[in-house]
Write a structure and sequence with these properties.
Probably involved in ribonucleotide reductase function. The chain is α/β, with parallel strands linked by helices. The chain is built from 6 helices and 8 strands. The protein has a 5-stranded parallel sheet, sandwiched between helices. A 3-stranded mixed sheet has the order 1-2-5.
């Protein structure tokens, strides 16, 4: 199970920030919906790292290929759909280069903007949206994402 301090235990300090070799990097707001979903996946702590909630802190620096999981913000026009923490993380060229795919969460009440943040990052990075789920996800979502990631990682 992913502990709330899990990211700290899997990272090493560097001059720019914390480095990580996690295969799944995620952002979760203070609501912790995304964090709860990641906990349900049950991956070992060394496979998962959480982006800092506070943007004034240094972002993570990844050293290995990874999948990025994050929620969509906003409710309609797409402005602000990608969390600032995700933008900051992807503005680091090495982080962007090692991105393999995206898992997006959202709210179906947003209609056409459901998981729009994932679509925006996919377009800008030319990487696929591997899965979409609503809010904290269903048990089916958890199973599909867990099995899909295990299969994907097994091919690398």
């Amino acid at each position: 199970m992913v502990a709330s301090t899990m990211a700290e235990s899997t990272m090493k300090p560097s001059a720019e920030g914390q480095t990580t070799a996690a295969k799944l990097i995620y952002f979760s707001s203070a609501s912790n919906y995304t964090h709860r979903f990641v906990e349900k996946l049950g991956f070992a702590d060394d496979l998962v790292a959480r982006l800092p909630l506070i943007t004034s802190r240094p972002t993570l620096l990844t050293t290995e290929p990874y999948v990025l999981l994050f929620p969509t913000y906003g409710g309609g026009d797409g402005r602000g759909a990608v969390p600032k923490q995700v933008i900051k993380f992807l503005n680091v060229p090495e982080n962007r280069d090692l991105l393999q795919g995206i898992i997006a969460s959202g709210n179906t009440n947003f209609h056409d903007a459901y998981c729009l943040g994932g679509d925006i990052v996919a377009r800008k990075t030319d990487k696929p949206v591997m899965y979409r789920f609503e809010l904290m996800g269903t048990e089916q979502d958890v199973t599909k994402v867990k099995e899909g990631l295990e299969e994907f990682w097994g091919k690398q």
